[in-house]
Amino acid sequence: MKKIYILMMCLVVAFMCTSIFSTYAYGERKQDPSGTTTGNASEIVSAKPGEPTIMDLANQIGHNKVAINIVWTLITGFLVFFMQAGFAMVETGLTRAKNASHTMAMNLFVYGLGVFGFWVCGFAIMFGGVGPLGTLGGYDGLNQELSVHLFGHAFGLIGTKGFFLSGVYDVGVFTLFLFQVVFMDTAATIPTGAMSERWKFLSFTIYGVLVGAVIYPLFGNWVWGGGWLAQLGSNFHLGHGHVDFAGSSVVHMTGGVIALVGAWILGPRIGKYNKDKSPNAIPGHNIPMAVIGAIILAFGWFGFNPGSTLAGTDLRISVVAVNTLIASITGAIAATLWMWIFRSKKPDPTMMVNGLLAGLVAITAPCAFVNVQCAALIGVVAGFLAVEGAFFVERKLRVDDPVGAVAVHGINGAWGCLALGLFADGTYGDGWNGVAGTVKGLFFGDASQFTAEVIGVTTNFIVIGAISYIIFKLIGIGVGNRVSAKTEMDGLDVPEMGVEGYAGIKMDKASETPLSR
Amino acid sequence: MKKIEAIIRASKFEEVKQALHDIDIDFFTYSDTTGVGNEKKKGQQMYRGTVLDTGWISRRLLEIVVRDQNVRKTVDCLLKVAYTGEVGDGRIFVTPVEEAWKIRNKQSGDDSLKGEDEK
Question: Which sequence spans correspond to the domains of chain B?
Fold first, then answer.
């Protein structure tokens, strides 16, 4: 009996609900499946909705222009962040399975540490004095640059505003911060590849904070923050100063130089070199992972280079993107053919990866300033340099670089800037670094641009090299840089990280380390 | 009863397995193993321009326990099928076995090694 009463009550309530709701139906607009009637004058912010004045229109257009730029910069920034996965995969794929957890952890954690350092003081040092943010709304509060005055000129050294992003709570600044922090992250993660398989995680952790806080922002300020390398044009009539569109020197050469110094200080892996100084091969454990990582990096680079316009309304982004693409493929082809025909007689997939990335690194500085034929040529040279550079580092310098980071990022970072100094064709860059006229290279009429690039590249090598040397030496004295020999033989995963990369997989760890004879 | 331990090339394994089935040797244990031997520069691996020392080559280890009457034909089969003529073909060792048991039905000795269709 009880169930019937409950059922009847439910039915009555349901009936009431339908009649109640029906009296609250709202009037509705016509559906618009083709999109032709959505969006009209009423969207314009104005005192009388639907009847905007000329000023209302102008304001909205200006707002929309900045909006396009900010959206573009943020989205390309997100792409560049994704490159972190690419680096992690390339590095782990090209190193041994017994160290996988450690290598992966370095690449993940450098994001946290570096960003922290950059937020605390790196951004302020690098961009504290960059001036008005032209494409991102024009906020001009980043106006404190510490300069030294010599020979009647100002030499900008570091910015001093925006620590912890305080005092600069502006949408333009925050956009810039996100975009720049992921670039810092790219530079920070390059040395983890060259120094992998024997780097103490504690030493790496200290480095991780310092690279974002100090090392990267210092040179970065000089080129992108309005510092003295950018001012070489306005101060000394050297082209437009040291020009670096998306960071061949600021990001990649910095990373490559730190990698070189760090790998040199750490010393080679056990078994890498024999007593007669000849090298042994230590194969990476996961070539598929390395190749996927390379593709992820190539994809992310479509954020790295075109995003550096900081403006979706700057339609040069199409040229930048195509230059990037073309240089990457000629780099891959050149490196592969060079290995195939002249070196090992086999199309080594790891050199294919290095060649692709080298082309991308080399085009990063000139991508906005060169024509596509030059971009292709730059890529070809980059592919060649990636292979021969790797051999040079391995066999002549005898620095153990498991992934080729020094050749791909250091050497090609320098080549990218020099290439800009040679091939910039004058179709873009009017007013760059405060110098009137478009950016031209040596072959297009402005040899002083090449000079400026040489100065920039040399400065990077010397200053970043010295700073990283000092920092690594100090860390070495403090906590030690390299793991013990026993840890290195066992694999860094358990002794350093406490977690195996491949739990449950039987590994013959001893066989992964070649004997040095 | 004898145990035949055969270390053969991993690439020859499927052929050997089929050949052993053809002579009614259906039950054996195999595992992947690594050996050191005379193979130095054969089958070169080249990693980033450096030749890989191939003195450490993957092998399959077959452990076949057979009745005395089947030892000769098993060894002959292995010698024939696992052969390539190149350095690194492998080795065969025959050792005596004291006891053999089948866990499922507690059979022991020669009886436990009989094939399915034998009586």
Answer: 2-34+60-113
Question: Chain B contacts of A390, Cβ < 8 Å?
Answer: 48-49
The total number of structural domains in chain A stands at 1
* B45/A283 Cβ within 8 A: yes
Answer whether A87's CB lies under 8 Å from A331's CB.
no
User: Are A511 and B49 in contact (CB < 8 Å)?
Assistant: no
DSSP A425: B
Per-residue pLDDT tens digits for A216-236: 999 999 999 999 999 999 999
Q: Which residue of B has its CA nearest to A516?
A: B53
Distance of CA A2 to the CA centre of its chain: 71
Whole-Å CA distances, A140 to A161, A234, A244, A456: 12, 20, 22, 27
ipTM > 0.85 for the complex: no
- Residues forming a β-bridge with B101: B108
Is A205 domain-assigned? yes
Provide the residue range defining the domain that includes A412. 57-146+158-274+282-485
- Supply the CATH classification number for the domain B2-34+60-113: 3.30.70.120
> Could you tell me if A378 and A417 are in contact, meaning their C-beta atoms sit under 8 angstroms apart?
no
Residue B114: the pLDDT is 83
Domain holding A448: CATH number? 1.10.3430.10
Answer whether A351 sits within 8 Å of B50, measured CB to CB. no
For residue range B34-61, list pLDDT tens digits in order: 777 665 555 567 888 888 765 556 789 9
Q: Per the domain annotation, does A178 fall within a domain? A: yes
Please write the tens of the pLDDT for every residue from A492-514. 999 999 999 999 888 877 777 77
> In this structure, is residue A464 part of a structural domain?
yes
